[in-house]
Design a protein that fits this description.
Rossmann fold, four-stranded antiparallel beta sheet
Length: 236
């Protein structure tokens, strides 16, 4: 469904992605792991059109989106839950979710809102509360919920467990699995918690220095000695 082919991305003279190729098929969770600075977030942002790929091609459901504007990519069906959550802190939970529904023109707002509240009951309890007063975990729920309000056909998620209490990390990963299984929504997941990410992934890629250096199923990468030594803190 998503095909990234030999993509190069630059920030000025710095080449952040050096010919990256990945695919995400329908119904899959695909995880990208790697050290800080490996190019993981840059890959997600390049797929969304900012920054643009300097070379290579990006195709979504057979359509070339390499040169598309970000808002057109979102309307085509790719939503992102970005690193750092980036909610609107002065808006209420409900207003944040309304912003997420803008690409759909609000055509199914009540139905989609009910689904988000079913997935994250805590958001329903706090729908009148300003986003900036939520805990880190609650803000992440809001970030994911906002992305889902756009009715995506693919969801990109960047570090959803970053800065979240361990008890809420489990809830976030359970929600990711539920979104994938119940909605059939393909997910491209960038995550520092390599163990949890690979545990739920159908397939995964390891990025290092802007290049894909390993690929395989989630189980294969979990069992790989190099991956375990580098990213799984002694195997967990």
């Amino acid at each position: 469904m998503l095909e990234v082919e030999n993509v190069v991305t630059r920030y000025g003279a710095i080449e952040a992605l050096k010919g990256v190729s990945i695919t995400v098929e329908r119904g899959e969770i695909v995880t990208i792991i790697g050290a800080n600075g490996a190019g993981k977030s840059t890959l997600l942002m390049t797929i969304c059109g900012s920054p643009r790929a300097a070379s290579g091609r990006i195709r979504f459901d057979g359509r070339d989106i390499t040169e598309m504007a970000t808002y057109d990519i979102v309307r085509l069906g790719i939503s992102q839950a970005p690193e750092g959550r980036r909610i609107f802190p002065r808006m209420t939970v409900l207003e944040n979710l309304m912003m997420g529904a803008v690409p759909t023109d609000g055509a199914h707002f009540e139905e989609d809102l009910a689904k988000v509240f079913e997935l994250f009951p805590r958001l329903k309890e706090r729908q009148s509360q300003r986003g900036g007063t939520l805990s880190g975990g609650e803000q992440q729920m809001l970030c994911i919920g906002r992305a889902l309000m756009a009715r995506p056909r693919m969801l990109l998620m960047d570090e959803p467990s970053l800065g979240i209490a361990p008890i809420l990390v489990r809830q976030i990963f359970e929600a990711i699995v539920a979104i994938n299984r119940e909605r059939g929504l393909p997910i491209l997941l960038v995550e520092q918690n390599a163990y949890q990410a690979l545990k739920i992934a159908h397939r995964g890629y390891v990025l290092a220095g802007g290049r894909v250096v390993m690929r395989g199923t989630g189980r294969e990468l979990l069992a790989d000695p190099e991956v375990r030594a580098a990213y799984l803190e002694g195997g967990h």
